[in-house]
Write a structure and sequence with these properties.
heterodimer, A: about 120 residues, mainly beta, 4-stranded antiparallel beta sheet, about 55% strand, globular, B: about 110 residues
């Protein structure tokens, strides 16, 4: 079974603190993603990475950065946490399978980290 | 950017009823996912499909590529099916993973 783990289930930080959220997957997946989930807004992509050292901005990258030094680990960094970054953060990984013009991908999600910024 | 619409937003039904959740999207896609999220936040991938129909237990997912529409059906619904069901579409651009575009979810409650 694919396992995606996140460093914390619950986290409380103060405004202005630097926050690190860690995600580790054990299936040698190339692609990893960070999302945040807020009521009424659904899941929104923050950043993704399709290889070590590669990173791409998603829909809402402002206020965040990421690091992918090893294939199995994708870190989300809040440089200076703010109260509007209070949210559920979900990490996912996936393996691309391309057959001709047909492309398939299944994302596997971690359990989530509920971050509260006071 | 793909627009993903789900309906209904909220659904309450009695145990045993046949449930249908709909998902429509605006741009051609490579694949569509149905996800299930239980209270507490854990997300499980139910199906990934790019054509036709898939069945797993009491769950059936169908997709109509021409109509840009997918449905998730639950037969003989049970209270443990109560969850948020999320539709997500994936468009492969050839330059690497672009992630998914998500619907806002359908909150399903099955009453005993």
């Amino acid at each position: 079974d694919v396992k995606v783990t996140q460093s914390s289930r619950y986290l409380v930080k103060r405004t202005g603190e630097k926050v690190f959220l860690e995600c580790v997957q054990d299936m040698d997946h190339e692609n990893m993603f960070w999302y945040r989930q807020d009521p009424g807004l659904g899941l929104r992509l923050i950043y993704f990475s399709y290889d070590v050292k590669m990173k791409e901005k998603g829909d809402i990258p402002e206020g965040y950065s990421v690091s992918r030094e090893k294939k199995e680990r994708f870190s989300l960094i809040l440089e200076s946490a703010s109260t509007n970054q209070t949210s559920m953060y979900l990490c996912a990984s996936s393996l691309e399978i391309t057959s001709g013009s047909h492309y398939t991908d299944t994302q596997y999600f971690g359990p989530g980290t509920r971050l509260t910024v006071l | 950017k793909n627009e993903v619409e789900q309906s209904p937003q909220n659904l309450t039904a009695q145990e045993g009823e046949f449930i249908t959740i709909n998902c429509s999207y605006s741009v051609g896609i490579s694949a569509l996912h149905w996800l299930q999220q239980h209270p507490g936040g854990g997300i499980v991938s139910l199906f990934m499909l790019s054509s036709g129909k898939k069945k797993h237990g009491r769950l059936i997912a169908t997709i109509n590529i021409q109509e840009k529409h997918s449905s998730l059906h639950i037969t003989a619904s049970h209270p443990r099916d109560s969850a948020v069901y999320i539709c997500a579409v994936y468009m492969y651009s050839g330059g690497g993973a672009d992630g998914l575009t998500f619907g806002k979810g359908t909150h399903l409650i099955i009453q005993p």
